[in-house]
Amino acid sequence: MKYSSLVARIQGRRTAAWEIHHAAQAAVAAGGDVIILSVGDPDFATPEMIVERAVTALRDGDTHYSPVSGREPLRVAIAEEHSDQSGQRLTAENVILCAGAQNGLFASSLCLCEAGDEVIVPEPMYLTYEAAIRVTGATLVPVPVDPKRGFHLDGDALEAAITPRTKAIFIATPCNPTGVVMPRVDLERIARLACAHDLWVLSDEVYADLTFEREHISIGSFPGMASRTVTLGSLSKSHAMAGWRLGWVIGPPPLIEHLGRLALCMLYGLPGFVQQAVLVALEHKSTIVADMREIYRRRRDIVYERLSQVRRLRCLLPEAGMFVMIDVTGTGLDAHQFSWELFRAQRVSLLDASAFGETANGYVRLGLVVDDRRLIEACERIAEFVGD
């Protein structure tokens, strides 16, 4: 039997990167003492008041269809929250709910891009960006960043990549995997280029609430950008709600209308009891996020302090998020070899970061997704493996 070539477009090296994570999960299921640091799924339980709201809503019978774009009270709450962050005045017409930010990425790509277009993406980039762009028939144009500058944007390289076929620039700030938070000067340059060349900007801001030393800024708040910016958000990381599968897309109303047509075919509305829970999550956001941020900051510092002492490793200090990038070239192994040999020898799973882009060759990504005790143990296992 033959299958559509559309699905083949989303296969490749980036999606194969998850093989080590699947192997680690299988080892845990078999009873192995494995420390899984290869995925961005927080180890915390979702805060109790959020769970209780969902349970109450279920018992009250909130199990029927909901509006395709999401219930208006939740969309208004998201619009108001983002208005506070960006300085724009947004309404429910600027917001549509989706089944997680990745779903929003795919749907937005389908609305923005088509065959013949080019999409510029600074790399390293999250693994599904390539798939989301390629499935539309557009061409992904990766722009390397500079590891020696902590993986910050090379603005000259990005500008040089623009051609008459360029349709959009996709960015992630804070970035997964690098933990980089784009400074204002870099965002201003991207905004100027987008306005000058009539480009869309898709801004993945899933980690916006988990910044440490540098302030997060939304590019959609810059002059001329509200009508050409698509912003992705969710509570998966900031509220330990990865399994709830609710995110959102913020953009100009005509784009949201297009996304609504896709949502009609793909989702037909998200569960009402989940939407009720997310409303509670937003109501308690300041307290929940403050606690999460400090936990991740502490975990980051634990890993950085210990692994920076390992002579043949070089750690980068992330500015946000739940990952640490580690340069393993000093071990004489490439990142793929390092991650698999470490897993087999010490039962710690890390992700080969080269899957995020050639710029990250020689790096592995470590997730700050277990408690302090297990994280310290993982660092000791890594140090023992390296022999330092």
Note the main attributes of this structure.
single chain; 388 residues; alpha/beta; Aspartate Aminotransferase, domain 1; Aspartate Aminotransferase, domain 2; 2 domains; 14% strand
Walk me through the topology.
Blueprint: H1 5-8, H2 13-16, H3 19-29, E1 35-36, H4 48-59, H5 72-86, E2 95-98, H6 101-112, E3 118-123, H7 128-134, E4 139-144, H8 155-160, E5 166-172, H9 184-197, E6 200-204, E7 229-234, E8 247-250, H10 253-266, H11 272-283, H12 285-307, E9 314-315, E10 323-327, H13 335-346, E11 348-349, E12 351-352, E13 363-367, H14 372-386
Parallel strand pairs: 1-11, 3-4, 3-5, 5-6, 6-7
Antiparallel strand pairs: 2-8, 7-8, 9-10, 10-13, 12-13
